[in-house]
Amino acid sequence: xxxxxxxxxxxxxxxxxxxxxxxxxxxxxxxxxxxxxxxxxxxxxxxxxxxxxxxxxxxxxxxxxxxxxxxxxxxxxxxxxxxxxxxxxxxxxxxxxxxxxxxxxxxxxxxxxxxxxxxxxxxxxxxxxxxxxxxxxxxxxxxxxxxxxxxxxxxxxxxxxxxxxxxxxxxxxxxxxx
Length: 178
Known about the structure:
It is a single chain. By secondary structure, the protein is mostly beta strands. It is 2% helix and 66% strand. The chain has 1 helix and 10 strands. The strands form 2 sheets. It has an 8-stranded antiparallel barrel. Strands 6-7 form a two-stranded antiparallel ribbon.
């Protein structure tokens, strides 16, 4: 079925933009109340020597809209996968069984895969523009190697697993509808 007016959306997540992560999403209609969204995120830039924040991931999502596609409330089910190389991020956060403070003194490099459910709302700003807010929770499996510090190459752990349960999606999307 060829795309028609208001059947395709191009978007950027302003929350990811705030972390210097390039991102782009494409959403297309499958029916009056169902859409398929796929977004990608990349941060390949060099940070200060004592910090790493490189990653890429992709996140497809099927959405059910309560009224009509691209407007109002929706629920989603998403999957996600990607790779990361992060460390030297000073913090003291411990949340739902994950100790993010370990990112302060170590670097973690590996991959992740998981999924979850989400809820969102799309505010119609004009004929072709929306602002979309979305939060999601779910599970991620990670397999990683740990390095002594963010800027060094000495590996201290290899093939470690972590099971994460918690927020898996946060979006403030600026949306252009075709």
